[in-house]
């Protein structure tokens, strides 16, 4: 390496550091450290995969929604999730990875996606619990990401968060309707809350002292709050909403500690989280197989699109030559 290269690298690093310190945005055209680029690709692609895999648990109820109105709303929500996945894949592509590479990392089982989507959805009340708890956790986690230092990610998050807050309200409304119904409907709503409560707390990731990526992502202003801080915020949001719904959160230890100014709770069962991350959750295999099948079934569409693009390019070339 020559002295000139060393000076140029130091200048680029200094410019990057200044952007971060000034809370400005890093854009695709800007120089960035390789580790920053890799971290963003990791997080944004995992996030995109989560949106795409996250269509499955709810997709399971589109044909069985209890009314035409519920069906239309659920269909729109699942379509929004596809859209979120696409904005996020596009944001990741600005960092130099292709959509094809990301798709293969997912279907080959090499990429992570959110643990939450590896649980089954046996009842209609699961649609309510997913909206209220899963989208609720997603909002707590994602609103701060609107200020993420990488421009394309932050901007994608602004639009995603607007849609997520609608999703959360529709989930709350499904549960509210069930809670105002028959005893069996109330029991179904409570059962769904019991099953989704702990997994939704795990969505924020491991506790701070076991979160290897947090320190660096916070220094780079990708993450603005720690996993535990966000979990606390989420609990603060849930407790009054659970009261309004009339559901019980399934943790007898949960209470506000006035002295410590934080929620106290039963320790999360992190062994369940690690089992899911290792691919051994109740629905891991099904989710991945469905995604693989969809990819294979869509091969003809990709081939047709590539052939169309090839013909268009050839026509343009012939026109130019003429
Ligand atoms: N599930 O050092 P940590 C949605 C991994 S979609 C699986 O704390 P980091 C929706 C983590 O990746 C919601 N893996 O990591 C869609 C890391 O592994 P690697 C998706 C998890 O990145 C449809 C390791 O554990 N939201 O809203 O600093 C319908 C150590 O963790 C999980 C996002 O993706 C998990 N829950 O923090 C409805 C948000 N947690 O990569 C709703 C964007 C941790 O080192 N992502 N891991 O092998 C983030 O904010 C952060 O990546 C996380 C983790 C907070 C998730």
From TrEMBL:
GO MF assignments: phenylacetyl-CoA 1,2-epoxidase activity
UniProt EC number: 1.14.13.149
Family annotation (SUPFAM superfamilies): Ferritin-like
Assigned keywords, A-Z: Oxidoreductase
Signal sequence extent: none
Organism: Microbacterium caowuchunii
Organism superkingdom: Bacteria
GO cellular component, one term: cytosol
Record Gene3D superfamilies: 1.20.1260.10
Name of the protein this chain belongs to: 1,2-phenylacetyl-CoA epoxidase subunit A
Gene that encodes the chain: paaA
GO BP terms in the entry: phenylacetate catabolic process
Pfam families membership: PaaA_PaaC
Keyword Cytoplasm: no
InterPro entries xrefs: Aromatic_CoA_ox/epox, Ferritin-like, Ferritin-like_SF, PaaA, PaaA_PaaC
């Amino acid at each position: 390496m020559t002295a000139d290269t060393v000076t140029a690298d130091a200048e680029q690093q200094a410019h990057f550091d200044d952007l971060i310190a000034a809370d400005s945005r890093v854009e695709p055209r800007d120089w960035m450290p390789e580790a920053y680029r890799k971290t963003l690709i990791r997080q944004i692609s995992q996030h995109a995969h989560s949106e795409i895999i996250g269509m499955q648990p709810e997709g399971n109820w589109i044909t069985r929604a209890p009314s035409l109105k519920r069906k239309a709303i659920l269909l729109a929500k699942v379509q929004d999730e596809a859209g979120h996945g696409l904005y996020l894949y596009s944001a990741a592509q600005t960092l130099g990875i292709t959509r094809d590479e990301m798709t293969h990392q997912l279907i080959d089982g090499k990429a992570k996606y959110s643990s939450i989507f590896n649980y089954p959805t046996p009842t209609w009340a699961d649609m309510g619990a997913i909206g209220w708890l899963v989208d609720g956790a997603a909002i707590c986690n994602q609103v701060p990401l609107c200020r993420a230092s990488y421009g394309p990610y932050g901007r994608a998050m602004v639009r995603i968060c607007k849609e997520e807050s609608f999703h959360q309200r529709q989930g709350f409304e499904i549960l509210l309707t069930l809670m105002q119904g028959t005893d069996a409907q109330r029991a179904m709503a409570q059962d769904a809350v019991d099953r989704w409560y702990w997994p939704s707390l795990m969505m924020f990731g491991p506790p701070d002292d076991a979160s290897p990526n947090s320190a660096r992502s916070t220094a780079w202003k990708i993450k603005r709050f720690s996993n535990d801080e966000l979990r606390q915020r989420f609990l603060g949001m849930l407790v009054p909403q659970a009261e309004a719904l009339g559901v019980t959160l399934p943790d007898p230890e949960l209470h506000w500690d006035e002295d410590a100014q934080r929620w106290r709770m039963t320790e999360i069962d992190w062994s369940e989280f690690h089992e899911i991350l290792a691919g051994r959750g109740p629905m891991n295999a099904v989710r991945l197989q469905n995604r693989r099948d969809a990819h294979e079934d869509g091969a003809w569409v990709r081939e047709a699109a590539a052939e169309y693009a090839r013909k268009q390019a050839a026509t343009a070339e012939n026109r130019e030559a003429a």
